[in-house]
UniProtKB/TrEMBL annotation:
Name of the protein in its database record: Sugar phosphate isomerase
Domain spans labelled Xylose isomerase-like TIM barrel: 76-255
InterPro entries with a match to the protein in the record: IolE/XylAMocC-like, TAT_signal, Xyl_isomerase-like_sf, Xyl_isomerase-like_TIM-brl
Gene3D superfamilies in the cross-refs: Divalent-metal-dependent TIM barrel enzymes
GO MF entries: isomerase activity
Signal peptide: 1-38
Organism per entry: Amycolatopsis thailandensis
Pfam families membership: AP_endonuc_2 (PF01261)
Alphabetical keyword list: Isomerase, Signal
Length: 291
């Protein structure tokens, strides 16, 4: 059902691309409880849609302990699982060129990366080009005031224009606090309104969006077509972070309602007990999920 609903939405948006109110109206129709229902209950009747293997990635932050202990071996293990794409969060003491060499050896592409924008942007962009990144995202920002968020949005927009000149679009990755109002205003709204959609895309972390009380489907539709990447990590009913498919977030419904413009589905777990087990579980889930 959601597949047809999504087709109607995207057809309508193609005709009303400039009408932002249409996105809000449609997005508001989807309630949060429909997203955070048990995946095991919702995964059996979602149709034939699937995540293409070339859109499956993993955030290497999830494997940081393993990478620090054995970088070559861990990258080799990811390749054995089936990953052909990763998202970076540092290069673990290697130069960009050295890290690229290890990736190439394992036939893995670092299509995305998490970066800061307050340092040497020229160096950051140069490294991203060496690594082969086709997208970059600021992974975190936090401010106590709306004015602080407004200033950050300005810096993000300026940095994004510079990244775009180098052929690498820059986006923002959310946590939960961006959805908690400050003086009645949500920082996420300040961030999205204060940046140009042409230059700043959005990477939605599904766990943190749900944790922040937000329906990812509504969020996607409100900001269509800016959302191009998902962080796929699951959540138990009481808020514990778990591997994809082990919690209550209804990924099949989310994927089915938002799939046309998603470039990457990125497996992640902030603090996994066994990083390579999480990598395997996440890859298997994304290969097998239907929506």
């Amino acid at each position: 059902m959601c597949g047809e609903e999504a087709e109607r939405f995207h057809s309508r948006r193609s005709l009303l691309r400039g009408a932002a109110t249409a996105a809000v109206a449609v997005g508001a129709a989807v309630a949060l409880p429909s997203v955070a229902t048990a995946a095991t209950e919702g995964s059996g009747h979602h149709g034939r849609g699937r995540v293409p293997v070339d859109k499956i990635s993993i955030q290497l932050y999830s494997l940081r302990t393993a990478l620090q202990a054995d970088l070559p071996g861990t990258l080799s293990a990811l390749a054995d699982i089936g990953y052909r794409k990763v998202e970076l969060a540092g290069t673990y003491g290697r130069t960009a060129q050295e890290f690229r060499g290890l990736l190439d050896k394992n036939h893995i592409k670092a299509t995305s990366t998490h970066v800061g924008i307050d340092g040497d942007l020229d160096k950051t962009i140069a490294d991203a080009k060496v690594l082969g990144n086709t997208r970059a995202n600021v992974p975190f920002a936090a401010f106590d005031t709306i004015d602080g968020w407004k200033q950050f949005a300005g810096r993000l927009d300026t940095a994004a224009r510079k990244f775009r000149q180098a052929g690498i679009p820059l986006g923002y990755h959310n946590h939960a606090h961006e959805f908690a109002p400050i003086d009645g205003v949500r920082p996420y709204d300040v961030l999205t309104r204060g940046t140009n959609p042409r230059y700043v895309h959005l990477e939605i972390d599904l766990f943190w969006a749900v944790e922040g009380g937000v329906d990812p489907i509504s969020l996607y539709r409100q900001h269509f077509p800016r959302v191009v990447q998902y962080h796929v990590k699951d959540r138990t009913a009481d808020g514990k972070m778990v591997d994809p498919g082990k919690g209550v977030i209804d990924f099949p419904r989310i994927f089915g309602c938002t799939r046309p413009h998603l470039h990457e589905y990125i497996v992640e777990h902030d603090n996994p007990t066994d990083p390579l087990s999480t990598a395997q579980t996440g890859f298997t889930y994304l290969r097998n999920v239907r929506f």
